[in-house]
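Why do we care about 3D structure at all? Because function follows from shape, and shape follows, mostly, from sequence. That is the central idea of this module. The next example makes it concrete: a single protein chain, its amino acid sequence, and then its structure expressed as tokens.
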Amino acid sequence: LVAACAGSPSAPLPLTSVTAAVHALNDDLDTLALVRAVEEIADDSTLDDGAKFEALVYLDRILGVELTRALRP
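And the structure:
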């Protein structure tokens, strides 16, 4: 999904979605809630692909799971 959205024009970070993920992190690293928040971002048809990309990259910087690894040359 990250690679598919990478070519899309940038869009503002979807704060509501990202806030839910950050709250999950702050809640004793509630991984189940965090995964749900990431899935909601990915599945949200109201978000532009650029907004999804920005949100996933932002969360990737926090989590360090290297979602963007495939995008690097």
